[in-house]
Each structure stands twice: as C-alpha cells, then as structure tokens.
Write a structure and sequence with these properties.
The protein is 40% helix and 16% strand. The strands form three sheets. An eight-stranded parallel beta barrel has the order 3-4-5-8-9-10-11-12, surrounded by four helices. The protein has a two-stranded antiparallel ribbon with strand order 1-2. By secondary structure, it is α/β, with parallel strands linked by helices. The structure holds NADP nicotinamide-adenine-dinucleotide phosphate. NADP nicotinamide-adenine-dinucleotide phosphate (NAP) binds next to strand 12.
C-alpha cells in the first residue's frame, strides 16, 4: 500500500488504517466469547498481512477489550509491533464509572488523561503508544492543562505523538496554541454519507496546518458497503438510494465493489484523508485495499458528490 506521513511528524502509515472498534464482536464486555475475541485477532492479522500499518483503538471500545485484542495480535505475530503504529484515544467516561450515579461525560483533566494512557498501555501490553488522541471535545477542556498532560506523557516516553478526534477547527487551534507538541491528526467522520467536514472548515484547517484527517466510518458504518451493517453511528442520508446507485455505476466501470469506490473518493481529496476501515471480515479487509490503486477522475468524483447531496451544485 502507498504510505502517508502523520501530519508534521516523522511517523509513516499506510494510506488506509485499520479500526478495532468492532473487534470484540459486541460492545458489552460480559458478552465477549473466546471465539469472538479470536475472530477480532484474525481480522487484525488479516489487515496487517494486507499491508495496513496503523491500528486505531480507544479505551472505551468494548470497555478495554478491543485494546486487549489488539495487544494479543501484536504478541502473536513476530515483528508486527515494530512495523505498525498503534493509535488509541481517551477522554470519554462511561456512565456508572467509577460511581454508579456518574453520568456519561468527557474528561480532559490532566490527571485523567495520564491515568487513561497508562491503562491503555497496560491493556495493549506495549511501552509506547504511537498516536494518542482525545476522543470527543470535553466542554470543560482547558488547553493548558491538556498540554501539560501531553508533555508529561511524551517526556516519559509513553506517547510518540498526539492528535484529536471530532474536534471543531477552533478548538484544534486553541489547543495547538497552548501545546508545544504538534497535533498531527484530527479523526472525524467523513464519507459520502457524511459531508460536513468538506464545508465546516475541518478539512480546510487540515490543509492549512498539515494535519492528517482520519476518516472514521468511511463507509457510513456499512451504509455504503455491500455487506452487513452491524451498527452505524451515521444517520441514513436522505439520498442513500441514489448514492448507492451512483457508486454501483462507477464501480461497474472499474470492475470493483462500491466500497472500493467510496474509499477511492475519500483518497482523492488533497488533504490526504486516511480512511479507517472497520470491517472484521478478512476478505473485505483485503479487498478494499484496491482503493489505494484507483484514481477517480474529477468528473466521477463530482458525480458522486452530487449523488450524495441529492441536488446539483449551485
Ligand atoms: P466502516 O468501514 O464505515 O463500516 C464498517 C462496517 O461496514 C462493518 O460493520 C462491516 O461489516 C460493514 N461492511 C459491510 N460490507 C463491507 C465491505 N464490503 N467492506 C468493508 N466493510 C463492510 O467503519 P466503522 O467500523 O464504522 O468505523 C471504522 C473505524 O473508525 C472504527 O473501527 C474505529 O476505529 C473508528 N471510529 C472512530 C470514531 C470516533 O469517534 N473517533 C467513531 C466511530 C468509529 P463486516 O465486519 O461484516 O465486514
């Protein structure tokens, strides 16, 4: 696979990243079965063998189980840890933790960020996280306090570089102004089913500052793909039927699946969007790599944009 640098850092990743959100096969840790865990490990190894070199995770994915599954894969495959980048996130605290009455909330306090990072390192079974991200903006975020935690983790050798997720551009700027370490990634929802980042300044800021935009749910969580759809955070867009038909029409021309076209559409953007593939099916994980070799024309790109908007451009 072709490679791309993470923002202004020296870290290099495959153009497609692999996401471990679905690796446990369930969101409830008490439901995780040995076979489900083994399937998660198989998906991760399939991605590694297909050339993916960045693995995205978060402390809340199945309440830590997905980090453990990635850790298991890293131990099972000799040399894998040295060849891949491990990314994970913190900052979302689930309801009922630690006290039963605690609501779901966001927490970017310095103390919590450091503690959460140490928990992720333990579950992953590694000494350093390559990319550590803040998962969703904390309404009470204090950029100077966050910067202090980042510097502490960096100086301790626990994190190599930092990023954010679901951040609006103004909050990225506020945090960067306070932080001596560069923010190299903003991981946001981008797909033909979710076009906001093209017009709300997110991708403009990535272009201006050299931040790598990572696209979560690049296939709309399965809405734009050919197979099953376990769970999607993406609301079904109003023009989904026309969009799928437009994807199929372009896919037919190239002899690939509509998933490959939906990913090639993201890859064409000059901000160097890095789609994070979430399939747990080894065959699909391998198949969509074809997007890396497919260059859509401007006409095809706009044809799909118009189908996604459901209306002509002004
Ligand atoms: P996605 O690639 O848009 O959707 C994956 C889903 O589509 C899976 O359920 C998969 O099912 C299904 N699918 C059906 N046909 C497929 C095909 N031909 N090719 C590929 N997938 C197909 O991505 P996602 O899983 O929603 O999200 C990807 C990653 O983004 C996550 O793993 C996570 O790392 C990250 N994420 C981040 C945030 C955030 O807030 N930062 C939020 C959500 C996700 P099968 O498994 O059966 O193939």
């Amino acid at each position: 696979m072709q490679t791309v640098k993470l923002g202004s850092s020296s870290l290099v990743s495959s153009r497609l990243a692999y996401g471990c959100w679905r690796s446990a096969g369930t969101w409830n840790p008490s439901e995780v079965a040995a076979e489900g865990e083994a399937a998660g490990v198989r998906g991760i190894i399939a991605a590694y063998e297909a050339g993916y070199t960045l693995f995205d995770n978060a402390d809340i994915y199945c309440r830590g189980v997905c980090e453990q599954i990635l850790g298991r894969a890293l131990r099972e495959v000799a040399g894998m840890r040295e060849r891949v980048l491990v990314a994970t996130k913190c900052g979302i605290r689930l309801a009922g933790e630690p006290q039963p009455e605690a609501p779901k909330r966001y927490d970017f306090s310095g103390q919590y960020i450091v503690r959460a990072c140490e928990g992720s390192l333990r579950r992953l079974g590694i000494e350093t996280i390559d990319l550590y991200m803040l998962h969703r903006p904390d309404y009470l975020a204090d950029p100077h306090e966050i910067a202090g935690a980042f510097v502490q983790l960096y100086d301790a050798g626990k994190v190599r570089c930092f990023g954010v997720s679901n951040f609006r551009p103004s909050l990225v700027s506020a945090l960067q102004a306070a932080c001596p370490l560069p923010l190299v990634v903003n991981q946001v929802e981008i797909s033909l089913a979710r076009l906001n980042c093209f017009t709300d300044g997110t991708l403009d800021q990535c272009l201006e500052k050299g931040i790598t935009p990572q696209a979560w749910s690049p296939l709309g969580g399965g809405l734009l793909a050919d197979g099953t759809n376990q769970r999607s955070l993406t609301p079904v867009p109003p023009h989904a039927e026309g969009l799928v038909a437009a994807l199929d029409s372009v896919a037919g021309k190239y002899g690939v699946s509509r998933s490959v076209i939906a990913l090639a559409w993201l890859l064409k953007h000059p901000s160097r969007i890095m789609p994070i593939i979430g399939s747990t099916n080894p065959q699909r994980i391998q198949e969509v790599v074809a997007a890396d070799r497919l260059e859509l024309s401007r006409e095809e790109w706009y044809q799909l944009l118009i189908a996604a908007r459901g209306t002509e451009l002004p």
